[in-house]
Amino acid sequence: MSDTNKFAVVTGASSGIGYELAVQFVQNGYDVLMVAEDAAIAEAARKLSANGGRAESLQADLATWDGVEKLVAAIQSAGRPLNAIAFNAGVGVAGPFVETQLDRHINLIQLNVTGQVHLAHRVLKDMVARREGKVLITSSIAATMPGTFESTYNASKAFLKSFGEALRNELKDSGVTITVLMPGATETNFFHRAGADDTRIGQAKKDDPAEVAKQGFEALMAGDDHVVAGSFTNRIQATMANVLPDTVDAELHRKQAQPGSGKKKKAS
């Protein structure tokens, strides 16, 4: 990496929105440390470097205390200021809450919530001390509605949205900006990993992760509060969800996320 370039970290960067965020950083003159819990992160960094970027990889499970501290140590050992970070790592769990494995829900909370808070507390202190830094937190339009059949996932994204907006206000005079990225359904491995392949939303047309990442990066650079990324439909959906009663939102989400709903739609 070059000491003359700015330095950024992207978590959950082995594929999907995270990888495309790393692409955006590199294309805009940043050196990037790409982080994920799976071994594919090494190939993702090699791929980005082969295209002229400056990227390194770190395999770390950010659902664990040690995994977060491993990343913090890597940031500190770089010996340079962290100019930007994208908190993008996250997982989903689909299906009836009482029928899905408890350890999957606990892991979701540890990664989507606990790990994010842990990492933010560790890196923000230095940014605030330097009075400079840009932070992107990947939430979702799922944050605007109760997640029937994705109960802990939507709740975790609502936490991240609230967390990010609270930090933004706390740090408004610090020189550090917090931007919340709120994509809709995006063409990534998310739905397959969550076990939602047979749902309506799992089978529906999805947004391009490259476009979502570009919109998120531009909002981050502009210091925006948040951005609802992807299709115009996402903005309509987020707006309507904020207007409708939670009971209605929960029922609408049920129609999209109920197991087998995609098969029913296809058969009709």
CATH class: Alpha Beta
The fold-level CATH name is Rossmann fold
CATH superfamily: NAD(P)-binding Rossmann-like Domain
Q: Which class do the helix and strand fractions yield? A: alpha/beta
The ordered H/E elements are EHEHEHEHEHEHHHEHHH
Low-confidence stretches: none
Looking at the overall shape, the CATH architecture is: 3-Layer(aba) Sandwich
Share of helix among residues? 40-55%
Spatial order of strands in the largest sheet: 3-2-1-4-5-6-7
Entry summary:
By secondary structure, the protein is α/β, with parallel strands linked by helices. 52% of the residues lie in helices and 15% in strands. It has a seven-stranded parallel β-sheet with strand order 3-2-1-4-5-6-7, sandwiched between helices.
Structure overview:
With 268 residues, this protein is α/β, with parallel strands linked by helices. It has one domain (6-267): Rossmann fold (3-Layer(aba) Sandwich). 52% of the residues lie in helices and 15% in strands. The chain has eleven helices and seven strands. The longest helix is centred in the middle third of the chain and has 29 residues, at 102-130. The relative contact order is 0.13.
Secondary structure topology:
Layout: E1 6-11, H1 16-27, E2 30-36, H2 40-50, E3 55-59, H3 65-77, E4 84-87, H4 102-130, E5 133-138, H5 151-170, E6 176-183, H6 190-194, H7 200-203, H8 209-222, E7 226-229, H9 232-243, H10 246-257, H11 261-267
